């Protein structure tokens, strides 16, 4: 199909123009562009001798699909008013300012909108391909920050984005955050300059960008530090959980990105979330790294150094979150395991309802669910390489009764009381067993780190790294060759089959970096 403008003009030269756009000339140009792409891919990701040829083509497809999904969106987010408030016309929201967003998306066909926590993982791939595209995207996200330092976690801008979002998920809540994963890519960019991976001209442009972004990044960080802090100094929890719900087996934590991953059964302000503590450590170290790189020296930078040392304190981390028996890190909160969903007869409404029943009073304790959250300090390299805790973490990773499968690590242990349990009548398990590539990539990063650190567990970490990497590549490639799709997550119970949204070339495209053995620079 050829689109020609001006076909109705006096001298449209239709035949000549069609010939220039089709046939052998087009084929030749396409082949030339494809060759350029493949040569550049090989140069950047350097996968020679690391994978076989059939895996190489799948990696190229993952990258091109991620890049092809990048979009430019324009519109206004809808910001929820406080509970009980509404406008004169009855609306329970106010519009954000009209804004543009240039961003990658998890799936252009199914999720055609920007997700804040997904975007950091997308940028880990994109900056390696083109740092200028990555800076442009991150800059657009930072342009969405408000006076308080808050960025709406889902960007539902324009008709395409709105068409794919259920009404109950459109409103954005200014008390709710999302993992600040953009710091993953920003830390990488700063580290790459330090390691002289860019030309002098490129390094200067990236340095200028980081310097301009620093003020907004600081506002964003301070928003987290003030609004997501816990009851005690140095503690954090994801705000926004529903402590009044009667329909959820375990109140969801959408703000964490891990949705229905089990947390304390009865939310309150005593909660401590170990994953958020680790994200804050990453953000603090990134701000500290950028400040050091830009040779800043002010009271603000000294505060980042102080907070970084505080959040890196291994004894404090263990005191707050470690279960000595299993070596797993757990959340802390008002919790009981004795909850269930059961049917109740609602005679007034003439229907049955599936509601939560609490069989035992909750009390403050560690929340005993082993899964991705239990490994966050491991992912971030926060465990000393000589610590006995590291051995326990490797035990959890390698145990097939807990997290290990031949297709990747499951999100929640088979031993958990919430494993593969529905959260409501209509909510199937999501982060309660399925294999997710972004978290497997982060765990691989931890294994790679500890395999190269002097310590008694380096050899074992290296062996697990090789096996997990091989399993992930084989399963993603096998599913792609069988179905033609990259998937949202993979089924740990059904031979690693892809499930959820398909054409999910957001963080599943991290398979490119897994093949290239390229990991984020998380460690000081």
From TrEMBL:
GO terms for molecular function: Glc3Man9GlcNAc2 oligosaccharide glucosidase activity. Coiled coil: none annotated. One of its GO terms (cellular component) is endoplasmic reticulum membrane. InterPro entries: 6-hairpin_glycosidase_sf, 6hp_glycosidase-like_sf, Glyco_hydro_63_C, Glycoside_hydrolase_63. Residues 22-517 form the Glycosyl hydrolase family 63 C-terminal domain. GO terms for biological process: oligosaccharide metabolic process; protein N-linked glycosylation. Pathway: Glycan metabolism; N-glycan degradation. Keywords: Glycosidase, Hydrolase. It comes from the Eukaryota. The keyword Lyase does not apply. Belongs to the glycosyl hydrolase 63 family. This is Glycosyl hydrolase family 63 C-terminal domain-containing protein. The gene is LOC125545753.
């Amino acid at each position: 199909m050829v689109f020609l403008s001006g076909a109705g003009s006096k001298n449209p030269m239709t035949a000549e123009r069609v010939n220039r756009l089709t046939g052998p000339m087009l084929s030749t140009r396409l082949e030339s562009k494809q060759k350029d792409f493949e040569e550049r891919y090989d140069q950047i990701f350097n996968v020679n001798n690391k994978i076989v040829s059939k895996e190489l083509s799948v990696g190229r497809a993952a990258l091109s699909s991620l890049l092809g999904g990048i979009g430019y969106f324009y519109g206004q987010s809808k910001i929820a008013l406080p509970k009980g408030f509404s406008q004169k016309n009855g609306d329970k929201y106010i519009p954000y300012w009209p804004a543009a967003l240039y961003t990658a998306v998890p799936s252009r066909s199914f999720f055609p909108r920007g997700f804040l926590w997904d975007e950091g993982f997308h940028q880990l791939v994109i900056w390696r391909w083109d740092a200028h595209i990555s800076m442009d995207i991150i800059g657009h996200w930072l342009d969405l920050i408000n006076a308080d330092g808050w960025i709406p976690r889902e960007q539902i801008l324009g008709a395409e984005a709105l068409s794919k979002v259920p009404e109950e998920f459109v409103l954005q809540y200014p008390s709710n955050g999302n993992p600040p994963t953009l710091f993953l890519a920003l830390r990488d960019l700063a580290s790459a300059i330090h390691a002289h991976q860019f030309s002098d001209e490129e390094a200067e442009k990236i340095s200028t960008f980081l310097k301009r972004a620093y003020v907004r990044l600081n506002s964003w960080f301070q928003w987290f530090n003030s609004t997501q802090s816990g009851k005690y100094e140095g503690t954090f929890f994801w705000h926004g959980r529903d402590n009044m719900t009667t329909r959820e087996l375990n109140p969801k934590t959408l703000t964490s990105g891990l949705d229905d991953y089990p947390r304390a059964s009865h939310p309150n302000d005593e909660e401590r979330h170990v994953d958020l503590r680790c994200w804050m450590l990453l953000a603090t170290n990134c701000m500290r790294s950028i400040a050091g790189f830009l040779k800043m020296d002010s009271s603000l930078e000294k505060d980042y150094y102080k907070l970084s040392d505080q959040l890196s304190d291994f004894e404090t981390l263990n005191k707050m979150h470690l279960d000595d028996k299993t070596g797993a890190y757990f959340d802390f909160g008002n919790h009981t395991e004795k909850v269930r969903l059961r049917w109740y007869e609602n005679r007034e409404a003439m229907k049955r309802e599936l509601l939560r029943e609490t069989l035992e009073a909750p009390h403050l304790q560690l929340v005993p669910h082993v899964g991705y959250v239990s490994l966050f300090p491991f992912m971030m390299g926060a465990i000393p390489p000589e610590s006995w805790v590291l051995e326990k973490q490797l035990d959890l990773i390698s145990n097939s009764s807990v997290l290990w499968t031949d297709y990747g690590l499951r999100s929640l242990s088979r031993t958990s009381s919430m494993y593969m349990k529905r959260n409501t009548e209509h909510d199937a398990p999501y982060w309660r067993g399925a294999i997710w590539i972004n978290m497997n990539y982060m765990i691989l990063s931890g294994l790679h780190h500890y395999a190269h650190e002097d310590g008694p567990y380096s050899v074992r970490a290296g062996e697990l790294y090789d096996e997990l990497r091989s399993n992930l590549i084989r399963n993603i490639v096998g599913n792609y060759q069988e179905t033609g799709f990259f998937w949202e997550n993979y089924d740990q119970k059904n031979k690693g089959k892809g499930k959820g949204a398909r054409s999910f070339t957001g963080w599943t495209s991290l398979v490119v970096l897994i093949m290239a053995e390229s990991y984020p620079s998380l460690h000081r």
